[in-house]
Amino acid sequence: METTDTEVLVTAARQGDAAAFDELILRFTVAVRAVVARRLGRAAEVDEVVQEVFLRGYRCLHQLQEESRFGGWICRIAARLAINRAVRGRPLHTAEDVSEYLADSSVESPLVAVLRAEQQAELVGMIARLSVLDQQTLQAYYFDGYSVREISLRSGAPEGTVKRRLHSARMRLRDELMQAGTVSC
After folding, report:
1. What is the DSSP string of 49-89?
2. Is the model's pTM score more than 0.85?
């Protein structure tokens, strides 16, 4: 497999060429399967994760900075997803199931309370990885309930600056969550 072939295929796939991405799948399935199989035992589970790896790779292809590094990039996605599956296990319910349950339930079940607490703890941990300015901006807006105008008055920064800080902080938080495998593109 020549690097230039991979570069050409990645470039074509980025431009919407499904056949090019299919070829990338064919070329890298063995490597991705090996990475996933090292961490997971059951073949059916490995198949599910391999499929998710390539779906995530396709959706996030725009994030790959160097086309020649596609193989390593897709294998890192495979490792993260396999670790997530091994640690968290297979989800028992879809997001729709949980949201329907929450909408129908007036009383929070112990399971929902535990899931909510875990999500909040994970989110707080991700926010702690951000810069102090990002943390302060997110804290003031989302947790303390201040408006952009109130943050502007308290910090002495123009409202436009506060909006930019808030947007930048959200993007950096999203990137942290994506690197942790918590959210997809």
Report:
1. HHHHHHHHHHHTGGG-S-GGGHHHHHHHHHHHHHHHHHHH-
2. no
Which long-range contacts (C-beta less than 8 Å, at least 24 apart) are formed by 75-78? Answer: 75/28, 75/31, 75/32, 75/35, 77/53, 78/32, 78/35, 78/36, 78/49, 78/50, 78/53
The residue whose two tokens read 């294998």 is 75
| Structural domain 95-179, CATH architecture | Orthogonal Bundle (1.10)
Spell out the per-residue pLDDT of the chain, length 185, in tens: 445 688 999 999 999 888 898 999 999 999 999 999 888 877 778 888 999 899 999 888 888 888 889 999 999 999 888 888 877 765 444 444 445 544 544 555 566 666 677 777 777 778 888 889 988 888 888 777 888 999 999 989 999 999 999 999 888 888 877 776 655 55
Phi, psi (rounded to 5 degrees) for 89? 80, 175
Domain ranges in the chain with CATH number 1.10.10.10: 95-179
CATH of the domain spanning 3-88: 1.10.1740.10
